[in-house]
Protein: Regulatory protein TetR
Organism: Streptomyces xiamenensis
Amino acid sequence: MKMKKGLTAKGRATRQRIVVAAALLIREKGIAGTSLDDVRVATATSKSQLFHYFPEGRSDILAAVTEYEACQVLEAQQPFLGDLSTWESWQDWQHAVVTHYTELGQRCPLGSLTAELGKSSPQTRAVVSSLYDKWEAALVRGVETVTSAGRDAALGRARSILTAVQGGVVMLQTTGRTDYLEAALTEAISPLRPVGTQVGSV
C-alpha cells in the first residue's frame, strides 16, 4: 500500500491502523454509514491527527481503504496464488477463492468503494488495474508451470480464469449463491488437470 511520503515508522503504523479500522467499519456499516467521527472513535485519534494523515479527509481515507481492500483480495488467495505449480495447488487456490467470496457473501467492499470513488477516476483505475495486473501475472506463471503452453496461450487461459472468478462473483452478489462461482472456476481450470486425474481429486 502506498504511504504518505515523509512519515516516520510510527507515523506509517498509525496511518495503517486508521486504514484497517476504516476498512472494518465500512465492511460492517457500509460506506454511507461510516463517518469520519466513527473512524476517529474506533482509532482513538483526534481530528487533527486524522487530517494529518489524510489531508483531503473522507476521499483520502476511501482511496486508502480501496487500495487496502485490493491487497486483501490477493492476500486471501495466499499462499496458493504464489505457487500454482501443481494441480493440487490449483485446487487449493480455487477453494481459497470460493471461501473468500463466500465469507463476503453479497457484500463486496472493493466494488462498493470503487463505485463511490467513481470507476472512471484515475485513482480508482490505478488501484484496480494494479490488482488485476498482479493477479493475472500470478495466474500466468501458474499456467506456464503446469502446462507446456506458450506465453500467449498461458495469458489467454489466465484471463479466462480471472474472468470466471469475476463473473461468478457477480452472480454471487446478485443471487447469494456460490455454485455459479464454483462451476465457473472448475470449468476454467479443468484444462490444467493432468491426464487421468479425476475432477476434485487431490
User: Anything to note?
Assistant: The chain has two domains: 9-65, 68-192.
